[in-house]
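Hey, I'm writing a tutorial for new members on how sequence and structure tokens pair up, and I'd like a real worked example in the thread rather than a made-up one. If someone can provide the structure for the chain below, I'll link this post from the tutorial.
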Amino acid sequence: MPVFDPEKLRADFPILSREVDGKALAYLDNGATSQKPQCVIDLVDHFYESGNANIHRGVHYLSRTATEAYESARETIKKALNTPDSQELIFVRGATEAINLVTNGLEEKLCEGDEIILTIMEHHANFVPWQVLAERKGLKLHFIGLNEDGSLDLDAWKAAFTSRTKVAAFTHISNVLGTINPVTEMTAFAHGQGALVLVDGAQALPHGPADLTEIGADFYVFSGHKVFAPDGIGVLAGSREILNSFRPYQSGGDMIDRVSTTGTTFRNAPGRFEAGTPNISGALGLAEAFRYLGEIDWLAAAKHEKKLAGLATGELESLGDVRFFGTTENKTAIISFLYDIAHPHDIATILDTEGVAVRDGHHCAQPLMDYLDVSATVRASFAFYNNESDVEAFARGMHKVKRFFG
């Protein structure tokens, strides 16, 4: 039975016990990357200490067991995400590579004048690859704006579809605003218009499992480093039929069926897109992270995160002259704000003197910053392992900002 004990879970993350310049670390930059539980760290270490070997190539014991562990990792993630077939899960370096893989595969299928619908809240990873593809192929991109509270203008999004719309790509949760998009509804509508759908789930999975069968997207992507797993690993979950129609994104060893001097044939997905030696330890660490997350009561975790974000928001409101970006009720525990008396970089620097880690800047979302008519914001993003002491440190830091600049 999943349980939620935030202090017990916090103790599973060794980095959270460290100090920064003599102050307890208050890590509120989870939107950029998450910290890793000891079980993930131990599993990766154990692989290199006692099980390291290349996969899919050798008949010796270490190679066999490494191969079994790698493919078992795929099965673990399949179950966690409720996907119909583990062979539809491709291990990549992260969401960025996954989206590039999709845009590369679609290049031969799209024609000049075809249309792609994006939202203005997309991370650069779900923005730039489509722009590059559009420039190469003469495609038309539509960028859909927001309501005042930071939610997507769903009516405008639906109205943008035409007979030439071939793809709709959108984030599950905004990395700046915290807005949770109705991805199941959006996917069903786009499919009804004959369009393919890609969902960027990088910010969603750290806040609870996603049912990919229910969402129904053609492609769902995420990065391991945001979901309490190692860096340099991620997943593209996609329709096997569509994936097998894509030309290989990279070529080389292990993704081949037969190589000769007259030509090469390629394996089907997922091997078709996992050229060379993959990030074996990363895949194992990602599966271990999902096993760990499967023991958490996510309803309780979401309530805990929302409570902390509410406390932090209250502290900011008490300062006055604070502007918030993303105020819809349907959002996750991300606070993006400006304090009019100080630049975001100065705020983040002063918070750092209190051991508080936040993010300042454009958050890899410059089109959104342009849309909001700001150059940068400060972002505090919460995870289930944060606690009220982190909020108190954040409040102390913000009052220090007020004293310094006010």
